[in-house]
Amino acid sequence: MLELEHLAFYDHHAHGLYHEPLWRTAPLEAYFTEAYDPHILQRFVPDTLFYRRSLRDLSELYGCDPNADALREVRAGVDYPALCRDLFQRANIQHLLLDDGFWPDRLWSVAQARERLPLPVQRVVRIESELELLLPHHDAPGTLLDALEQVLREAGRSAAGFKSIIAYRTGLAVEPPTPAALERGFRQDRERGGRVQDKALLDAALLRGLQVATDLGLPVQFHTGYGDPDLDMRLASPLHLRGVIETPAFRDLQVVLLHCYPYVREAGYLASVYRGVYLDLGLTIPYTSVSAMQTALHEALHLSPISKLLISTDAQRTPELYWLAARWARRTIGAVLSQTVALGDLTKAEADWAASRLLWDNAVELYRAPVAEEQASHTP
Ligand SMILES: [Zn+2]
């Protein structure tokens, strides 16, 4: 088994931490599931392998008995800002990209994370969030899309990349809408207010965002595969993205397929035949069983080049999730790469190289480096 504790982790997909009062009152169970249903949280989450394994991990971390009551007691007494700094250091996460489009009122902003965490933090711009902020201020789809383009061009000057959650809304089978469908969708979403739900409008906005990303040379992350029950998982298979990937205008676009479970083989296939496609196993690690995490990494490597596979935490809300995800990312990579050596796919030296590629080098090469003022504002 390769030991990887010393290797720095570039976490290329995560979200912010809870503001302290929310962290103090949030139920422990909610961190270990994608479900919202209170009955699932209370009755069934404690019966998952992820929850049971994590209780033991966290009790080891805090030095308490491995049960939820003992954990609640010890967590109630901790210094939250110190815990956040400490767990990022223990996780040896040395670079962080934050998608700040999730729960912006409940989680730290990118600027707050930059002030409070001991590492460089960069923003990933969620295209659909920018669209939703602009929608109430426009009365025609043309001016809305032009304004979106302008916002993305401006934000893209310093962002590490863009992100799309269109898989959560209307699925990955994105196509240019007809003008009539776009007009109709725009009117409906504008009247309804809040979250944009119309496929024509979402597709048009995404295509505009992809054009900006292509022009700026920025990668675009796509949520794919499993996630919370907002999504129709049939439409979240990355195979639906073929239309986008094959569009001649996007030939130089780099697309990162996030999470991928259970479509890991499909994602690995796409990475093996399309130059711009990369894949990630965040969320799959650590939200599944030890066996599933190892299987997913093996399946990604069935076809994907090592240099196109990335790992993220997809952590949010509590610093414990970053630490758990980093711990199991290293353990999974260590176990699977050792097996590839035993089976004859890689030499020991090649496995060491592969571990660095997965944890750090692939992300460094793919994403935009911090601009000068961001580096200056980072005080370790
Ligand atoms: Zn995420």
From TrEMBL:
What Pfam families does UniProt report for this protein, alphabetically? Amidohydro_2 (PF04909)
- Domain Amidohydrolase-related, by residue range, is 195-368
Instruction: Kindly give the InterPro entries that the UniProt entry links to this protein.
Output: Amidohydro-rel, Metal_Hydrolase
User: So which domain of life are we looking at?
Assistant: Bacteria
Question: What protein name is recorded for this chain?
Answer: Amidohydrolase family protein
List the source organism: Deinococcus sonorensis
